[in-house]
Amino acid sequence: MSPDLLMIGSFLLALLLGVPVAIALGVGGVVGIVAGLPPAMLGTFGTNTYNSVAKYPLIAIPLFILTGLIFERAGVAASLVRFAQAIIGPRHGGLTVVAVLVCLIMGGMSGSGPADAAAVAMVMLPSMKKAGYPQPFSASLIAASSSTAILIPPSIALILYSIVVPGVDLRALFAAGLFPGILAGVSLLAPALFFARKYRWEDPETVDRPELWPSFKAALPALFAPVIILGGLRSGLFTPTEAAVVAVTYGVLVGCLLYRNLGLKDLWNLMTEAAVTSGVVMFIIALAGIFAWAGTTLGTFQHLADALLSLSENGWVLLGLVMILVLIAGMLLDAISIYLILIPIVLPLMNHFGWNPIWFGILLAMNIAIGQFTPPVAVNLMVTTRIANIRLEHTIGWSLVFIAAMAASLLLVMLLPGIALWLPEQLGYVVGSW
């Protein structure tokens, strides 16, 4: 058996046996080295794992994870919900609009779908249940809406994409994700409002409307967070990595001094939780370095890309196949693992067909976002169903509705690249060739 098959086969077998993704990547890389390279190459194990994580932009990942945790515990979601309710007012489907809007804004603070799903679900699910919404519908909508965090800057997944794909400007990626993220949110609203009005959920006469001015004052610190982060990046005041430090500092000030929901003990617990989560992420990245080095040295990734090219020379056909492959992967794996495993395989295809790397990165992110609320794994859906105290199987029907809606927005961005590329071009960022 060829080293390529042994490497890929051992990785897939480890996954099927329930081995954690990080260990499976390491096992696959070691098997590939032993099968196809001199045994002395095992000496590169330490160097490759270190080189994988010793990258300056990666500092932003644990900091944005901490930012998301701070804003989640500080009561930001509750203040945003009250403000959105004050703007939209009582109407059939009003709470669905609130849920989507709050998820989009929260995505501009944390860059993590599961964190946003937890924060918004804790606040919105009781209100939606009281207004007559079925819990499976509410849990599915919040899980789908919070998946837009992978698109709305600052996105942890886009940070990793900028590191894996050479020559991609992270600021351009952040700008490119904004409109597709909003489009994805609007696409979810269409079926949500349709069903809310069809079934007469949320009787306007039984729903209280918060006062606008007090709710606006309470939400103002939260609304400023995305403005500070994105405004600082656009003005050149700080780099994306420095933006993560600014975000943490601002979150601490908001949580401790303005909302006063966080104390020193809370901050210590949050930093501990962020360290554990970041450790898991960095461990995956480190062992993926072994897999990536072995696959590149053996030529495994190029061979897989050539096999895909042999299926068709039509770029659109292969782009569709790649999107299906990423969607399937998104149903089983987390975003970080997908980028680390699939990018080396699809990168030769991107170069061969001249796909714009910024646009292609956004397509991958939109596809992975769909995977975050698509069973069987559906990390966002697992969070919201746990909070709603319902079984995940009960949400499958509603999830399929929102999957179709977001798939339509993905298709639109695929056919009209300007939706993603217009803003970074207008801001003067380098977006590459098309």
UniProtKB/TrEMBL annotation:
Its main location: membrane. Coiled coil: none annotated. GO terms for cellular component: plasma membrane. The keyword Membrane applies. It is a multi-pass membrane protein. Keywords: Cell inner membrane, Cell membrane, Membrane, Transmembrane, Transmembrane helix, Transport. Residues 9-419 form the TRAP C4-dicarboxylate transport system permease DctM subunit domain. PANTHER family: SIALIC ACID TRAP TRANSPORTER PERMEASE PROTEIN SIAT-RELATED. Belongs to the TRAP transporter large permease family. The complex comprises the extracytoplasmic solute receptor protein and the two transmembrane proteins. Part of the tripartite ATP-independent periplasmic (TRAP) transport system. This is TRAP transporter large permease protein.
